[in-house]
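Re: beginner question about structure tokens

> Can someone show what the tokenized structure looks like for a real chain? I only ever see the sequence side.

Sure, here's an example I had lying around. Input first:
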Amino acid sequence: MPIGSLSRVLSCVFASAAPLLLIAPAALAAPDSPYSCSGSFLSSDGSADVESCIYAENGVPRAFGGLTIKNGAITPETDCTMVVKIVDYNAYETGANEEVATSGPFHCMNGRYPSPPLTVDTTLAKPGHRYRSFTEVTKDGQGIARIYSPDLILP
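And the corresponding structure tokens:
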């Protein structure tokens, strides 16, 4: 299933000694796509383009990340992992854990994953809550990207 492009993406970049951190504000997916994606951003070391996407299906948030390796900078021998997580930004209201789903680490490879997409358990999906996913890439023990999806508010 092809991923639609965003109709608009704005981002803020916070770069320091910490990993590259990009946040995309709420944005709408293209009319032909159910996904809201961050857009593709270069990792802090230039080795990959990274994106984070979120959408609702059957009343629950689902998410996946994307990785495009640049110029062979990441090989099967490289110590590189990608993790996708979904966070409930309203969880603090009840004292619940804000991290509602995590993919666990995957070895870095070209493509979009996890497949099937990461899905929040129905008991943790709350109508009216604001969710955001992020894709985090670590290479040789150092964080090189953390890319946030746009917000998703469950109807």
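Each token stands for a local structural state, so reading them left to right follows the chain. The chain is about 0% helix and 45% strand.
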